[in-house]
Automatic annotation (TrEMBL):
GO cellular component terms attached to this protein's record: nucleus
Gene name per UniProt: Donson
Domain of life: Eukaryota
Name of the featured protein: DONS protein
GO BP annotations listed: nuclear DNA replication
Region (Disordered): 1-83, 316-354
Acidic residues biased stretches: 340-354
Keywords: Developmental protein, Nucleus
InterPro entries in the cross-refs: Donson (IPR024861)
Length: 560
């Protein structure tokens, strides 16, 4: 085992305590013979010059001030065996570093299973229980479901069940399970629906490379075979094939036969959504993160886009200033405070003409004036500061998405020119089939472990899903587990962070109009009607994503 069994032997620990106390007791000076000079007292132990006060060892029985204040004093003049039990045990652990707080019952299984790690820290206040959780447009890299009921029904699918699951996915077959499946392991319908929920479509398909995520993936791709990196002809063939697949996806999206798809490059990610989803009545494309160079290139191509988070922040500041500022003096004070905080006001367009007062004073030759480049850099300072941040999210709507399509196809900076990803086209991810796409499945495995509940250990079962988990897959899996696990399970969700900002509410549309549009125009997109209803709602998670999801008594709670 990976732990010390010393806690099973309290007598040994007590003997060790008594031995330490005997060593620490001052030695009584024995009477010296007549005429003999008394011995000099022993010099104190030399302090280690390389140790700090925090990590310096303390004498046995010494307590910190807080510990000393909260504990009763030991008996005076008593023997070591007369000391309280807590005093006998405390010095044994003194030299050990401070332990972290004990994990909750839900996270104990993560520490006991191999190759599992704790999820990202989440807020303490969960949401109120609901029968449906909000749509999460971020891409998950890993899901870990936990339940007191076994996941044996998800293991070792038969060949016929696997084939039936693929057929149901390609035919967009709706699977409606009962609220409670009595024998999940014997339910062929459940196992086929599980296989159906794991399917997604990918382009390009290079089995020896991990094509998602692409941002920060140089280390994982480095050292792998990439014959196209030095072959321009091969790069052109790959990009030509990629352009055909990209155009096919957009045509499916425009016809509402594909609900959404992702374009994952080595610098940014683009989410295309069909009209009727996320509260919008037109096709939308969100890009994150962006840079000043990318935004400038889009402007030069005539692509109209907006920066919703920047505009929202600017509007919020204006409203706050209108409420808080009542006089001109207050205005000047707030301007001074903003300058102290490092936030410069937005530069005006007449900065080039703001030095005319120097000529009026006759000192224009003595004062060095900033050149045009300095003025331009000052104007672009605020725009550059938000590069590579969630606030740089760009929104493209309507017919401008087709212009964005052509821009991305012809953009030379879309593909890396150096490094492990040189010459490799972006990754296309879609929940439905498209031209040039390859059918892929998420990896699933079940794990059995022990979870600590108070003073005992209980069996805890987990199901791990690894791969690019898109929104429709998360909803399909939770729907299956709702029936198979009797309405009680929890899940730790691991998000690809650059995509978390896709949950921002970008459109203020009428929910009634949006629902009518979805029910009319999106019945053939290949998703379950309940999934379409969820994805049609306006996003409510903001710049965050769901990190923890729990179901109790068929009601969801979640934390972001």
């Amino acid at each position: 085992p990976g732990y010390s069994p010393g806690f099973k032997k309290p007598p040994a620990m007590l003997r060790l305590k008594r031995k330490r106390l005997r060593r620490s007791e001052p030695h009584v000076a024995s009477p010296s013979p007549c005429g003999a000079a008394p011995r000099a007292p022993l010099a104190p132990a030399r302090r280690n010059p390389f140790s700090s006060l925090d990590n310096a060892p303390r004498a046995a029985g010494t307590l910190q001030p807080r510990e000393r204040a909260g504990r009763p004093p030991p008996p005076a003049g008593g023997s070591p065996s007369a000391a309280p039990f807590w005093q006998l045990l405390e010095p044994v652990c003194e030299d050990k570093p401070t332990r972290r707080a004990e994990p909750s019952e839900r996270t104990d299984i993560l520490a006991l299973t191999d190759d599992l790690h704790l999820p990202v820290a989440v807020p303490k206040v969960p949401s109120s229980p609901r029968h449906e959780f909000p749509a999460d447009w971020s891409i998950k890299t890993r899901l870990l479901f936990m339940s007191s009921q076994p996941f044996t029904w998800a293991e070792h699918l038969k060949a016929q069940e696997e084939a039936q699951g693929f057929a149901q996915h390609c035919r967009a077959t709706e699977t409606n399970l009962p609220q409670n499946v009595q024998e999940p392991k014997l339910s062929t319908e459940l196992r086929c629906a599980f296989q159906q929920s794991l399917v997604y479509w990918l382009h390009p398909s290079l089995p020896w490379l991990q094509l998602f995520p692409r941002i920060g993936a140089d280390r994982k791709i480095a050292g792998k075979a990439s014959p196209w990196s030095q072959d321009e002809a091969l790069q052109q063939v790959l990009m030509s094939d990629w352009s055909v697949s990209f155009t096919s996806l957009y045509n499916l999206l425009k016809a509402k036969l594909c609900p959404y798809f992702y374009v994952c490059t080595y610098q940014f990610t683009v989410l295309f959504r069909a009209a009727g989803l996320a509260g919008s009545d037109v096709i939308t494309a969100v890009i994150s993160p962006t840079t000043r160079g990318l935004r400038e290139a889009m402007r030069n191509e005539g692509i109209e886009f907006s920066l919703p988070l920047v505009e929202e922040s600017r509007t919020r500041k204006q409203k706050n200033s209108e409420v808080n500022l009542e006089t001109e003096v207050a205005n000047s004070l707030e301007a001074g405070n903003s300058m102290e905080d490092g936030e410069e006001p937005a530069p005006s367009d007449d900065d080039d003409e703001s030095f005319s007062w120097l000529e009026e004073m006759g000192v224009q030759d003595k004062v060095k004036q900033p050149n045009a480049i300095s003025i331009k850099l000052r104007k672009e300072k605020h725009e550059v500061q938000m590069d590579h941040k969630p606030e740089s999210l760009a929104l493209v709507k309507g017919t401008n998405t087709f212009t964005l399509l052509n821009f991305l196809i012809n953009c030379k900076s879309l593909v890396a020119v150096a490094g492990p990803q040189a010459g490799l086209p972006p990754t296309l991810l879609s929940p439905v089939a498209f031209r040039g796409g390859t059918l892929q499945t998420l990896k699933a495995r079940s794990i059995n472990a022990k979870a600590r509940v108070q003073w005992a250990y209980e069996d805890m079962f987990s199901l791990e899903i690894v791969g690019p988990v898109m929104p429709q897959c998360l909803h399909a899996l939770t729907t299956l587990l709702k029936s198979a696990q009797r309405g009680a399970f929890s899940a730790a969700l691991y998000t690809h962070e650059p995509t978390a900002v896709f949950n921002t509410n970008l459109v203020n549309a009428s929910p009634a109009l949006n629902k009518e549009t979805v029910s009319k125009d999106l019945p053939m997109c290949g998703l379950h009607p309940k999934t379409v209803d969820q994805l049609s709602q306006c996003p409510t998670l903001g710049k965050s994503s769901i990190r923890f999801l729990e179901m109790k008594d068929y009601a969801y709670t979640w934390k972001c």
